[in-house]
Amino acid sequence: MRRIVHIDMDAFYASVEQRDDPALRGRPVVVAWRGRRSVVCAASYEARRFGVRSAMPAVRAERLCPDAVFVPPDFTRYKAVSRQVRAIMERYTPLVEPLSLDEAYLDVSQHRGGLPTATAVAEAIRTAVRGELSLTASAGVAPNKFLAKIASDWNKPDGLFVLRPARVESFLVPLPVERLPGVGKVMQDRLAKLGIRTVGELRAAGLEALQQRFGRWGRRLHELSRGIDHNAVQPQRPTLSVSSEDTFADDLPLTALEPHLRRLAEKTWTAGRRESRIARTVVLKLKTADFRVLTRSLTPASPPVSLEAVVRIALDLRDRVDLPASTRYRLAGVGLANFADPDEVIAQSDLFAQPAS
């Protein structure tokens, strides 16, 4: 049986700002640029008491908490602190899978450090983070990844929750279905129409009924309702995609997006060049003034081999958008996806290049 720990830093960006500037301690801190187009990157717990949350428009956060201190994000500093946190984790296991700058899974089934239990490892990490970095982290300990992630949120902030195998069923049954990974608002509404609002009700629906209704996702829902998750901790997760996006100061028509798409494509191309694998797909993302999100993608016969090729495809994808000319756009993004090993790309190219016999 696996022993999985999920470490989640508490209000990470805001906590780093409060740590580094004593004048911010105890005050409601919002990490965001000011302005009507900006969104909240993070909020301290003092700001959260007023209802401020990540991804919220900054102007709404300002209305909810007029006394909030707005601090522009410093991602270079946050990344440096994140590396320090990861170094602490790797003292106890090489099996660390970062999910973002502020959270990670650890498989401590066979750990270093001479500690007797996964709980002791989680406590040791939290103690080191507090003592060495003057920050706090919450932790969840469980037999698999998705349970550990739920557990780490149970006693936030600066808490630890241990979910032992014998308690999994009694813990899951009363939870609302939206606590399960992958169950967003749309799936929550679909399940509610079937009279399913708790994990216990989802479990009672049975595998066959869920598969008939939701296909392969129905099987996954059934497994989650029973606390089953076979996904292993992956220390070296291969890159799935890289992207850059920007929210404009003013809503723009489609015809005005070219210079922005060129700039975003250049940032994405630069990031993609750092990867050892090759991207085969170009993705265009657009968000309209009324927050409708559109994505278009193209996988050409040969992977794009230059910045200009990425720009050309992104502009072609833009031209395929069939909304009215009066539509205005508040955000655009350009991404590279469908990464593959060079040998695989070459082999496929050779296959399609061979003449038919």
What does the secondary structure layout of this molecule look like, with pairings?
Blueprint: E1 4-9, H1 12-20, E2 29-31, E3 42-43, H2 45-48, H3 58-64, E4 69-71, H4 75-89, E5 96-100, E6 103-107, H5 118-133, E7 137-142, H6 145-152, E8 160-162, H7 168-172, H8 185-193, H9 199-205, H10 207-214, H11 216-225, E9 241-253, H12 258-273, E10 278-288, E11 293-298, H13 307-319, E12 328-340, H14 342-353
Parallel strand pairs: 2-4, 7-8
Antiparallel strand pairs: 1-6, 1-7, 2-3, 5-6, 9-12, 10-11, 10-12
Helix pairs in contact: 4-5, 10-11, 12-13
CATH level 3 topology of the domain at 241-349: Dna Ligase, domain 1
Order of helices and strands: EHEEHHEHEEHEHEHHHHHEHEEHEH
The count of DSSP E runs of length 2 or more, i.e. the number of strands, is 12
**Total helical elements:** 14
Using the 3D structure, state the CATH architecture of the domain at 241-349. Answer: 2-Layer Sandwich
Catalytic activity: DNA(n) + a 2'-deoxyribonucleoside 5'-triphosphate = DNA(n+1) + diphosphate
Pfam families: IMS (PF00817), IMS_C (PF11799), IMS_HHH_1 (PF21999)
Binding site for Mg(2+): 8, 102
InterPro entries: DNA/RNA_pol_sf, DNA_pol_Y-fam_lit_finger_sf, DNA_pol_Y-fam_little_finger, DNA_polymerase-Y, DNApol_IV, IMS_HHH_1, Rev_trsase/Diguanyl_cyclase, UmuC
Q: What do you see in this structure?
A:
The strands form 3 sheets. Strands 5-6-1-7-8 form a 5-stranded mixed β-sheet. The chain has a 4-stranded antiparallel β-sheet with strand order 9-12-10-11. It has a 3-stranded mixed β-sheet with strand order 3-2-4. It starts with a strand and ends with a helix. Among the domains are: 13-75, 3-Layer(aba) Sandwich (MutS, DNA mismatch repair protein, domain I); 168-225, DNA polymerase, domain 1 (Orthogonal Bundle); 241-349, DNA polymerase, Y-family, little finger domain (Dna Ligase, domain 1). Mean pLDDT is 90; it is low at 349-357. The protein is 39% helix and 21% strand. It has helices spanning 12-20, 45-48, 58-64, 75-89, 118-133, 145-152, 168-172, 185-193, 199-205, 207-214, 216-225, 258-273, 307-319, 342-353, and strands spanning 4-9, 29-31, 42-43, 69-71, 96-100, 103-107, 137-142, 160-162, 241-253, 278-288, 293-298, 328-340. It is an alpha+beta fold and 357 residues long. Helix 12 (258-273) packs across helix 13. It is globular. It contains 14 helices and 12 strands. Belongs to the DNA polymerase type-Y family. InterPro entries: DNA/RNA_pol_sf, DNA_pol_Y-fam_lit_finger_sf, DNA_pol_Y-fam_little_finger, DNA_polymerase-Y, DNApol_IV, IMS_HHH_1, Rev_trsase/Diguanyl_cyclase, UmuC.
